[in-house]
């Protein structure tokens, strides 16, 4: 089954404790990205990657890091989480086939930073 | 910039009612336009799309027409069901595979 898998689904952590949210896709997509979803703000892109070892900042990259060492995986790293990073996070992937490519989303990770 | 505007506030309606959710976009370039749906506890999934002016996207009884003259992509369904209760996001493409999303509309269908 074609899917994007995020882990964990729920996470509660303390300020300053490094964490990683994993994302994996099995569709051989070149393009992967991370979004955060906040009430009243919709989805905002954090980082994206057009292929292995190619990453770029989205609209709200501060406080986040990513890596793309393999095509299927695109982990999101919070080196020193803060309460304003409490949010619902989504990973997405698609073919790099121009703007017609359909984005597939993971089920989301609800992160709470206390 | 490249942005998408959706009508404010949740939408509550009765089963079998007509649904319209308005969406307008900034007219930079020639974007593709999308509607995504998010059911409770799930990620977003593509509902329909249109890639050029006057195209009509349709799926599951939902329709939206790409109107370049009014920079709009309004979502419509003639007779909603309780199972259509979800959050609906309008989006436009820009740059390298990037998507700009509207803020979303919560739709609640009452039996």
Distance between the termini of chain A: 36 Å
Dominant shape of chain B:
globular
Quote the beta fraction of chain A.
over 45%
Overall average residue pLDDT of chain A:
94
Determine the number of helices of chain B (DSSP H or I, runs of at least 4 residues): 0
Distance between the termini of chain B: 40 Å
**SSE string of chain B, helices as H and strands as E:** EEEEEEEEEEEE
Radius of gyration of chain B from CA coordinates: 13 Å
In DSSP terms, counting alpha (H) and pi (I) runs of 4 or more, how many helices of chain A? 0
> What is the largest interface, and how many residues per chain?
A-B, 28 and 22 residues
Give the structural class of chain B: mainly beta
- Main β-sheet of chain B, in a few words? 6 strands, mixed
Compact summary:
The complex is a heterodimer of chains A (114) and B (111). With 114 residues, chain A is an all-beta fold. Chain A has no helices and eleven strands.
What does this structure look like?
The complex is a heterodimer of chains A (114) and B (111). Chain A is mainly β. Chain A is globular. The termini of chain A are far apart. Chain B has 111 residues and is mostly beta strands. Helix content of chain B is 0%, strand content 50%. In chain B, the strands form three sheets. In chain B, strands 2, 5, 6, 10, 11 and 12 form a six-stranded mixed sheet that branches. The model of chain B has no long low-confidence stretch (mean pLDDT 93). Chains A and B meet through strand 4, strand 5, strand 9 and strand 10 of A and strand 6, strand 10 and strand 11 of B.
